[in-house]
Design goal:
Layout (H helix, E strand, L loop, with lengths): L1 H26 L13 H51 L3 H27 L4 H4 L1
Helix pairs in contact: 1-2, 1-3, 2-3
Length: 130
């Protein structure tokens, strides 16, 4: 159940991260690799929207993944694109890398929302579930 909880925490962090990014870029737009990133209006919108666009394929694949790998295995597999996405965010040198990373984070959100919810629903005993 800790993995399911962490999956939902990750979803919350990835959805709200774009707001922190826009605020931070106003004061210091230097990345970890000393690249300067500035966002146009459409890029600011893409920072928010790519998470939701990336979640659609995640939802579509998640049911199959749960059936093949099981609930726990699909949560582990679903977290993999998110870890890659956060690594790309940390090492990004341009806005295209950030947008691609946000899409990977959305994919993870779609995968984990189905897998984690399926897992959490089946934790209680059958008599309690109804």
């Amino acid at each position: 159940s800790l993995g399911a909880s962490l999956g939902h925490v990750s979803m919350g962090m990835s959805v709200s991260w774009a707001n922190a990014l826009i605020g931070d870029l106003r004061t210091d737009n230097t990345t970890l690799l000393n690249a300067h990133i500035s966002l146009d209006d459409w890029e600011r919108n893409m920072m928010n929207n790519m998470v939701f666009a990336g979640s659609v394929p995640g939802f579509l694949v998640a049911g199959w993944l749960v059936a093949v790998l099981g609930r726990k295995g699909s949560m582990v597999a679903g977290a993999t694109p998110g870890m890659l996405g956060w690594c790309i965010v940390a090492m990004a040198t341009n806005t295209k890398m950030l947008i691609a990373a946000r899409c990977l984070l959305g994919l993870t959100n779609g995968l984990l929302s189905v897998a984690a919810n399926t897992y959490v629903v089946e934790i209680p005993e059958t008599a309690i579930r109804g």
